[in-house]
Amino acid sequence: MERRGLLKAAVLVCLLVLCSGRDLTIKQHPSTTIYNSTLAKTLAEYAAAIYTADLTQLFTWTCIRCGDLIEGFEMIDIIVDVENCLQAYVGFASDINAVVVVFRGTQDNSIQNWIEDLLWKQLDLDYPDMPEAMVHRGFYSAYHNTTIRDGVVNGIQKTRKLFGDVPIMVTGHSMGGAMASFCALDLVVNYGLDGVKLMTFGQPRIGNAAFASFFKKYLPHAIRVTHAHDIVPHLPPYFSFFPQKTYHHFPREVCALYSTFTVFTCLPYILPCTKYLQHRCTLFVICIL
């Protein structure tokens, strides 16, 4: 029985190699320093807190989610773009000694239409100063072409003025994860900031293969946390017959097998999102329990 299981696993890996047309190297135990499950739980709580409807509770950090792992957080700014229904906040987390930047995802009353739109959304914007890199205009514009960008950058500057040149942790859920990714890249490329780290939860694809390659260069330790039954990380779709013209995820992905962020028994011993497998990662991720 054990030999049969090993044979099936070997056949599956061979099929993946043949489909990708490239050599495949599987690392059995990627560095645990890249992904920290405790940090993931903490950032997931920050990402959940931004959905608090009462902004007074959010600003005073008295909301239902504003305790336990994230107790003692010092809010600096809440940025709200009413016209575009966008929101983010910036503050200081003493437990991880970092600026924390959080972006809100899509509201419940519009998420179905948003997902349906992603099924057909094409790459429609050249990313500035990155040859052949194309991105999703909506996600790019939600961060770059609204009041969110200036508000977030000002919040980071104020936080670092108060607490020193501490690292910057950027996070968000769903569409908030897409905005967080553009923000982290912006902070590194356009503002030249050091110590920028990114971890998102259930974010969609945001650009093509060229963009993913650039992204990895500037944020090599970025993490996308997903779980097995979430459709959003599979959107917009990857089309294998147009590998260079379709959406790709940037690495690295960590898969959680549960429907909430409170359980992270799926540690980073996974099939890594190499440049050969970026389009497959949300479809084929090995988790060892």
UniProtKB/TrEMBL annotation:
<dbReference type="InterPro" id="IPR002921">
    <property type="entry name" value="Fungal_lipase-type"/>
</dbReference>
<feature type="domain" description="Fungal lipase-type">
    <location>
        <begin position="100"/>
        <end position="237"/>
    </location>
</feature>
<feature type="signal peptide">
    <location>
        <begin position="1"/>
        <end position="21"/>
    </location>
</feature>
<protein>
    <recommendedName>
        <fullName>Fungal lipase-type domain-containing protein</fullName>
    </recommendedName>
</protein>
<dbReference type="Pfam" id="PF01764">
    <property type="entry name" value="Lipase_3"/>
</dbReference>
<keyword id="KW-0732">Signal</keyword>
<dbReference type="GO" id="GO:0006629">
    <property type="term" value="P:lipid metabolic process"/>
</dbReference>
<dbReference type="InterPro" id="IPR051218">
    <property type="entry name" value="Sec_MonoDiacylglyc_Lipase"/>
</dbReference>
